[in-house]
Amino acid sequence: MKLIQSLAVAATVIGISVNALAYCPGVSRTGDSEPMSDAQIEEVLRAASFPEETIPTMVCIAAAESTRFPTASCTNASDSAIIAYGLFQIYDLWFKQCTNTDSRDYQIALLSDPGVNAKCAWRAFRSARSSTGDGYTAWNVYNDGQCHGL
Fold first, then answer.
1. What whole-number distance in Å separates Cα of residue 78 and Cα of residue 1?
2. Torsion over CA of 2, 49, 136 and 119, rounded to 10 degrees?
């Protein structure tokens, strides 16, 4: 985890994102958000009902997916119609289920809220856990070998 944190800090200092390097060449941030600390992300995860033992891995996932920026967004490289938003980079698939609204603009605004994004991440985690036995598989960074063993 220290390596991921160091990479995220170094990348943020020079103005790029770890996610941009590994997964999303088009990552961007909107608004005036600042990167969240590990402690802030941990607090949001607890409030969203993540079990304590999942928190270190989920903090790593947030660092890798969004470099801890709650307003990060990423357009899928192979399909520009698919966009992920927020701290945990929630894809369109989960928008309506997590925000209870049909308004895409409102959904995007809601998913920029770390609390809403974490609650949506919890739904994605539970869905992946029920289908694969491992909730972390909802995130490509985990499937690609990052954030294991924390």
1. 29
2. -100
| 148 lies in some domain | no
What domain count does the chain have?
1
| CA max distance for the chain | 40
SS (H, E, C) 62-86: HHHHHCCCCCEEEECCCCCCCEEEC
Considering Cα of 31, then 98, then 77, then 140, what sign does the dihedral take? positive
Cα 18 from Cα 121, distance rounded (Å): 19
User: Can you give the residue range of the structural domain that contains 64?
Assistant: 2-143
* Entry pTM: 0.77
Q: Which residue has the tokens 């409030």?
A: 47
Helix (H) or strand (E) holding 31: none
pLDDT, position 73:
85
In a domain, residue 150? The reply is no
- For 54-106, what is each residue's pLDDT tens digit? 999 999 999 999 989 998 888 777 777 778 889 999 886 677 777 777 766 76
Sheet holding 72-75, edge to edge: 28-29, 72-75, 83-85, 90-91
